[in-house]
Amino acid sequence: MRWLRFALLILAVTVLQKGLLARWSSKPDLLVILLVFFAIYYNTSEAIISSFTIGFAADLVGSPMPMGPQMISFGLFGTLLAYLHRVIAIKKMPYQALAIFVTSVLTGVLTHLLAYITGEPVAANIFAVVFVTSLYSSIVGPFLFLPTAWWMRIKMSRFSRR
Predict the structure, then answer these.
(1) Angle at CA 34, nearest 5°, toward 119 and 92?
(2) What average pLDDT does range 135-143 have in this prediction?
(3) Domain total in the chain
């Protein structure tokens, strides 16, 4: 993996998530999209490291949450997705969208559950917020895989005939 490119990508996406997308009421979670991307296109050990790193960046962005719940949930579900990808190929866009949706729902629910356990106040409509964010992320996510692969210098054969 090209770690310098990875660090710059995470930094740019974190700033974009906190700055520009923070003004929108309903927005995709770009960090979950990156989590699924790295779990799909890199080997298991690099996917696990990137999952915890992306979770750390998500904790930095999510200011009302205490530090740690997103890193734990991103790391856990990124690791599970990386091991699942060893068995099931997630290369087509509908499968990628489904992986983003499920991962986003699971990380969102676990993050808010961990925050609730630590005593942080949780909004009443948290499941609606998690569902809408997951839905937007799964719609936008597969289209962001191609520019991300270009930035990380990964060769993708998405549009080739088989």
Answers:
(1) 125
(2) 95
(3) 1
